Amino acid sequence: MSVNKVEEFWHSYTRDNMLNMSVPEAWMFGDGSKEMGDELGSLVVSGMKTGTCAAHCIYELEDEEIPKEGQYDIVLDGDNNPLAIIKYTKIDFVKMNEVTRDFARSEGEGDLSYDYWYREHVKFFTWELSQHGLTFTPDLLLVCQTFEVVTVNKDLL
Description:
This protein has 157 residues and is α+β, with helices and mostly antiparallel strands. The protein contains 5 helices and 5 strands; from the N terminus they run αβαβαββααβ.
């Protein structure tokens, strides 16, 4: 990732909005592949994707902080270019088998059905947890994050 591009994008946003904040985390949705980063990033830019979730235990294992309401993050595309800045509007802790249909739809993926969301997330979390020697269970605690796009990188559109 070009740190300069990320910093320039953030500094442009903070200047335009009269904010004095340090550069937030920049990351790509999905499994780290270009294909998934581009696909999910485009759903964010289009407004289809306003939610995401992560396994709570992964935050602990990777010593990362859980997002907070009001926090900004920079979403990267599949080539690690800054695509959009999001701001978290709601953070919930929910077991996977208790995620609502509305939240599943907010992830904007596939046919927007709960069944599609559940099936694809079982696959993803099974893979992700196996990287840490853990096994997926339906009561996996998730960090469900709702966000809004505050700006999009017009240079990439």
